[in-house]
Write a structure and sequence with these properties.
By secondary structure, the chain is α+β, with helices and mostly antiparallel strands. It has helices at about 15-25, 75-95, 120-135, 150-155, 180-195, 245-250, 275, 330-335, 340-350, 350-365, 365-375, 435-445, 450-460, 470-485; strands at about 5-10, 30-35, 110, 115-120, 145, 170-175, 175-180, 200, 205-210, 215-220, 225-240, 260-270, 285, 300-305, 310-320, 385-390, 395-400, 405-410, 410-415, 420-425.
């Protein structure tokens, strides 16, 4: 039998690309291979048209700042997500300085982030949210207005055609970004290949089995010719999006027991009409409908892909049993096990609002979708917009002691006790927080190496081991430096 490779990365998306890049910086001699079932990398959740592409920093996403029963605003999760995004920015800045990301403008565009609401109750909420965030170092520069003229200056499409006297409010922050995670993934993978890693597309991992020497035997099927092959790896990362759950189940690790998945599909309305696109240079997020999952928060987004600007509105959520956009209608059913069927049934019974919302979305007509768009953009013309299918997301169903089956919104690393295999489950905020998620995975899976790696980890992410906002002066310095390196607004 041939010598096992050091690292096998399953899935050619932003997570595998980020982890592979980090490990290559930490251990340049390691043999790293990426296995992707499709014909190219970044074709599923990392594809720019399959995700929101915001650069989630909680600057505008209202679901990260819920209103508590006493009327105050909880900013805990917003600060956490922003901290995570700053880690990603630091890592990208390091790669730019090292020449591994030669052109940050190829994947990152300065795009103001806005929150926009209407109705007295929502205006009061946004005002309180602004007051809770405005003095935090990571949200410096945020502006608030209830003046329709000011809001019109920030986003000209939002106000014309709106009912006079309707209470409205918005926040605006210039330091937001639009991230093309497809372009970023390809650039990272190119860098991995240039430095010795192998990328094998059209290779599907069909089996994972632990060997007596604690390596993992991967069974692979080459999609061209349906040829089976095998490889042994010392460490395996399952970054296969929705397929991470069934692959981890095949591995047999006890840590995956009790986990299930709830798939959510979606669609966008998109316009490439440059007369319309030119009037909206921002990402504008509103409030979610009752029961809506976080990735379905409505937003009118400027998207920059391959240097061309478009506008997206949505997403309109739906349901499909597929775990990937290119997956199978049997995906959901194939992951049902004795240890997760009860948690899955409990989630179905406890999330009636979500089910009601998804049914409503599935029954919505094209005119219904256009009416939702006009709540943001009153003068929108239906002929300017066309429908496109968004990426598939799989929310985590987890069995929590004392609570039973719980539907979790976020991401979670599931790793074996010995750290030889790990996978990523979940969705939002996902790609924007790839760097901190992979740092956590490294600490979990390579605890005996972290001390030796710490100098390199600190070069890659200067705030490693601490928080960016712990010291306002340090936060200002780091944010200013990364903004300058990435050529975006501070």
């Amino acid at each position: 039998m041939s010598e096992p490779i050091d690292v096998a990365l399953i899935g050619g998306g932003i997570m595998s690309a980020t982890l592979g890049t980090m490990l290559q910086q930490l251990e340049p001699e390691w043999d790293i291979r990426i296995y992707e079932r499709l014909g190219d990398v970044a074709q599923e959740s990392s594809n720019p048209w399959n995700n929101a592409g915001t650069g989630h920093a909680a600057l505008c996403e209202l679901n990260y700042t819920p209103e508590k029963p006493d009327g105050t605003i909880d900013i805990t999760n917003a600060v956490k997500v922003n901290e995570q995004f700053q880690v990603s920015r630091q890592f990208w800045s390091y790669l730019v300085n090292e020449g591994l990301l030669p052109d940050p403008s190829a994947f990152l565009s300065a795009t103001p982030h806005m929150s926009f609401v209407w109705g007295e109750k929502n205006v009061e909420y946004l005002r309180k949210r602004y007051e809770a965030l405005k003095d935090h170092p990571l949200f410096a520069g945020m502006q608030y207005s209830e003046d329709p003229a000011e809001i019109h200056r920030w986003a000209p499409l939002l106000m014309p055609g709106r009912a006079k006297g309707q209470p409205v409010a918005a926040t605006f922050i210039a330091s937001g970004t639009d991230v093309d995670f497809g372009a970023l993934t390809r650039m990272l993978v190119d860098g991995l290949e240039e430095n010795g890693a192998q990328v094998l597309t059209e290779h599907t991992v069909t089996g994972l089995k632990r060997q007596k020497d604690n390596t993992w035997r991967l069974t692979l099927r080459h999609e061209v010719g349906n040829t089976p092959t095998h490889v042994n790896a010392k460490f395996v990362f399952v970054g296969a999006g929705g397929y991470a759950l069934p692959l981890l189940q095949k591995s047999g690790i006890p840590e995956i027991r009790g986990f299930g998945g709830f798939p959510v599909s979606g669609e966008w309305l998109r316009t490439d009409n440059q007369e319309v696109v030119a009037q909206h240079q921002a990402k504008v997020y509103g409030k979610a409908s009752v029961g809506a999952p976080p990735m379905s928060v409505p937003h009118l987004d400027t998207r920059v892909v391959d240097g061309e600007s478009s506008l997206l509105f949505g997403p309109y959520a739906g349901f499909s049993p597929k775990f990937l956009k290119s997956g199978s209608l049997f995906d959901l059913f194939s992951t049902i096990r004795w240890h997760n069927i009860v948690p899955m049934l409990q989630v179905a019974l406890r999330n009636f609002d979500l089910l009601k919302y998804l049914i409503g979305e599935l029954l919505a007509s094209r005119s219904d979708r256009e009416n939702t768009l006009r709540e943001f953009f009153p003068n929108a013309k239906g002929d300017d917009w066309y429908e496109m299918v968004a990426g598939q997301r799989v929310q985590i169903i987890k069995n929590i002691p004392g609570k039973g089956g719980t539907l979790q919104f976020g991401t979670e690393v599931v790793a074996s006790a010995d750290g030889s295999i790990a996978g990523l489950l979940g969705a939002s905020p996902g790609a924007s927080t790839a760097a901190p998620i992979m740092l956590d995975l490294i600490e979990k899976c390579f605890p005996d190496k972290v001390d030796a790696w710490k100098p390199t980890l600190t070069r890659m992410v200067p705030s490693y081991g601490s928080t960016v906002s712990a010291d306002p002066k340090v936060a200002d310095k780091l944010l200013t430096e990364t903004a300058a390196t990435l050529a975006i607004a501070r």
